[in-house]
Amino acid sequence: MEFYRTGILRMGMGAAYLSGPKLVVDTPTESSTTNYDNAIAYIAQIGWAPEKSPFSFDLRYTMAKYKPSGVANAQDVNGNVVGLYMGYFF
């Protein structure tokens, strides 16, 4: 990810390569595994990071779509996620 910093605010954008994603369901009544094709995810992040502090607090949005492997005419699965992060710089 690349970040741009303005005082205490930092913003970043980037991409991630998702290799070998799969969904494993293992409950007392069901057990299954679904494999998905490799995918590219896009990431946007904004955070608060005071200039003299080793900490940052960030909000990140990741946008990803997964396509089931080996299934003709399968619908993409939405893998979007929002997360809160705390970072420590050393």
Description:
The protein is mostly beta strands and 90 residues long. The protein has one domain. Helix content is 0%, strand content 62%. It has a five-stranded antiparallel sheet with strand order 1-2-5-6-9, with no helix packed on it.
Main attributes of the structure:
elongated; mainly beta; two-stranded antiparallel ribbon; 90 residues
Span between termini = 18 Å
Helix vs. strand class: mainly beta
Tell me the total number of β-strands. Answer: 9
- Oligomeric state: single chain
Major sheet size, sense and barrel closure: 5 strands, antiparallel
Mean pLDDT: 93
The portion of residues forming beta strands comes to over 45%
What sequence of helices (H) and strands (E) makes up the elements?
EEEEEEEEE
Overall number of domains: 1
Gyration radius (Cα, Å) is: 18 Å
Kindly report the spatial arrangement of strands forming the biggest sheet. Answer: 1-2-5-6-9
Query: Can you give the helix content as a percent range?
Result: under 10%
Low-confidence stretches: none
Q: Globular, elongated, flat, extended or rod-shaped: what is the shape?
A: elongated
Q: Counting H and I runs of at least 4 residues, what is the number of helices?
A: 0
Topology (elements, then pairings):
Elements: E1 2-6, E2 9-18, E3 22-26, E4 31-35, E5 39-48, E6 55-63, E7 65-66, E8 77-78, E9 81-88
Antiparallel strand pairs: 1-2, 2-5, 3-4, 5-6, 6-9, 7-8
